[in-house]
Write a structure and sequence with these properties.
Layout: E1 6-12, H1 18-27, E2 31-34, H2 41-48, E3 57-61, H3 73-79, E4 85-91, H4 94-104, H5 109-114, H6 118-135, E5 138-141, H7 147-158, E6 168-175, E7 186-189, H8 210-217, H9 220-242, E8 247-254, H10 260-271, E9 278-283
Parallel strand pairs: 1-3, 1-4, 2-3, 4-5, 6-8, 6-9, 7-8
Length: 288
Amino acid sequence: MGDDRSFVIVTGMSGAGRSSVLKKLEDDGYFCVDNLPIPFLNKFIKFVFDEKEGRARVALGLDIRNGKSLEGLLPMLENIKNSNIKILFLDAGTETLVRRYKETRRIHPLSASLGISLEEGIELERKSMAFLKERADYIIDSSTLLVRELNREVDKIFAGGEDYANFIITIQSFGFKHGIPSDADLVFDVRFLPNPYYEPELKNLTGNDSAVYDYVMASPQADAFLSKLIDMLEFLIPSYIAEGRNSLVIGIGCTGGHHRSVTIANALRSGLSGSPYSIKMEHRDVKR
């Protein structure tokens, strides 16, 4: 088997982005095959790594539609020793998957075949696919990712030439007057900080502007809060990872979501920039 060959198994939860990832890899020059029957997998792997007939880069999509044949995948995976074969698992929260299915009006494969509800189908699939997630080399939680952001994570793995951390942190600023983000795991209220809204020259700016950022961060409370928040996250995140989590959404809220929350969210991102995790930034209410 040639060391320059690359074989990627793209799998995970239905609706988590497997098709988008396969399209991305195809655009990047991978030969992509979707949902090959499991009994053909061994022969397909031999073909991929054949010195004369094989292809340099191949991506194989596998999902729950393989049904009971998935059970036969486990002994195959245990027999695979080649380091050039990697597994990428696409995951997403149940609430996110339900919303995506309802928005697209698609039917979950297990819901259709077993006559069960969408939520029951998703949870049954999650249990059925758990063994693949446990063996995955890379895990991407797409719950908070747009397609372009998902593609960026794929690039980090297969085109970036860098180590990839299977943990995505989303930092989201918001305004309490518009409601707390429903997907936030941790929420912090920064309304105790000095409010630039009451400064005429700052009122119509946001925390993305240096004048507002400097005003907020000049407060001793802001510096102390940020330091303690980073310390807490550095303590918590390894424990989340040990529990099997692969994403964390951190909500930073102020009154309107324009000044203090945006500033602290930006400062937090800078403070975590040296961490080994993928970090995504969202300012939910900054344009309201």
